[in-house]
Amino acid sequence: MTLNVFRNRFGDTVEISILPGMVVIQMLLMGIISCYQVMSHKRSVLLTQIWAYRCQNGRMQVLYFAQVTYHLVTNSDVYYLGLATGTLTIESVANLTFCFFAFSYSFVNMLKARSGEQQLARHFRLVWELIQLAMVTCVASMLYIYRLTSLSYIIDANGVVQFETCQKATMSMQSLVNAAYMTYFLAAKSVPVVAVGSSIVFAISPWPTVSTIRRARSTLQFSFAPFFFYFVQSIIYTLYGWTTGNPVVGGTSLLGVVLGSYYVLIFYKYARDRTQATRMLTSAMLVILLLTHQVATRSPEETQMIIGIPANILSVFTAASPLLQIKNILRRKDASCLPFGMSVMNVVAGTIWGTYGVMLGDPLVICPNLFALTMGAIQVSLILLYPGGKGGNDAEQKAKSSPPTKPTKKLSPRSKKKIEHPE
């Protein structure tokens, strides 16, 4: 415990970086400058779209993301010591809050970005900004509440490493072992948090595709399968979280149920032929009712396997479902039917959850996420190889611009005679 005091004093003397605050200021200035360009021009509608494009999908997002990542990498030891010893300052809380805001903002905007497209996407902006505001407020509140609370498990591991380092400081091999131990310890504590964050981003990732369907009032070239399997998978994982008493799995899956129901509803609303979708939803509801009955009537130990196996199978179906149209993609050399957000997040979430599964040594976590990583890599490769982004946009613009056709009136026999034999 005494050894931690020395590190505490060292951490207090480190200057606090102002980079996160500067990143947020850059983002605000970018928005103000673009808004000024809009207000000073007569064609405000076009410039509003350009402003939204710059704020959401501009290349500056990559710079914001890189700056925040650099700050977190170079200053992680200071924040680690502050959390370990309960000496996290107000400046550190502000920096971490700014980092979370800038990191999430730039990451989601880069995920949503489309090269060469300038879309307003105001529906996505309003919902995402409300979600982000709520998440930033929660993060800031949690950091402020626990900033003076030392986390015992970090202190214990820190004390063990410091004791071994002080006793055997001259042994380079021992120092290497200590470094490896602390790296594994930090990974074991941070990977679950990152995994939960990736699940939340995955739940939001289909939103741009669904917004495109809603604006076009048509399902365009997109398939119902990815949204359907994700919705059903979220319901079953919610049951699994409730059975195992795991609030993390249950909470993230419940968010997937809410958003997945919205995705399915929008697709079903604008689908021309609802026969297949109705059959799929009816069958899924029957299976879910059967599983719910098993959960309610059996012990948690018995239902864990009953719920876990279908959940893993549905995870595989969710990851592979966008590739049901692979024949059409290869034939037309157009991958615009693939949901970009879900494809990218299959790679990201599959990598993170697969790593977590390796750390747990759980094949039920490793196998489906390794499959999701593979399927996501194939989908992203197809999107990069056959972008073909104009097909969906042309269909959307045509659906917007074409006026509704008026039904033709049948001519009476008397009117036909007048047309054929005018007086």
TrEMBL record:
Keyword Membrane in annotation: yes
Region (Disordered): 391-423
Major localization listed first in the record, in broad terms: membrane
InterPro entries in alphabetical order: SWEET (IPR047664), SWEET_rpt (IPR004316)
One family name in Pfam for this protein: MtN3_slv
Superkingdom per UniProt: Eukaryota
One cellular-component annotation, GO: plasma membrane
Keywords per UniProt: Cell membrane, Golgi apparatus, Membrane, Repeat, Sugar transport, Transmembrane, Transmembrane helix, Transport
GO molecular function: sugar transmembrane transporter activity
Biased composition (Basic residues): 407-423
TM ranges: 16-39, 78-105, 126-146, 181-204, 224-242, 248-268, 280-297, 303-324, 336-358, 370-388
Keyword Repeat carried by entry: yes
Compartments, as annotated in UniProt: Cell membrane; Golgi apparatus membrane
Membrane topology of this protein: Multi-pass membrane protein
PANTHER family: RAG1-ACTIVATING PROTEIN 1, SUGAR TRANSPORTER SWEET1
Protein family membership: Belongs to the SWEET sugar transporter family.
Protein's UniProt name: Sugar transporter SWEET1
Lineage, uppermost ranks: Eukaryota, Sar, Stramenopiles, Oomycota, Peronosporomycetes
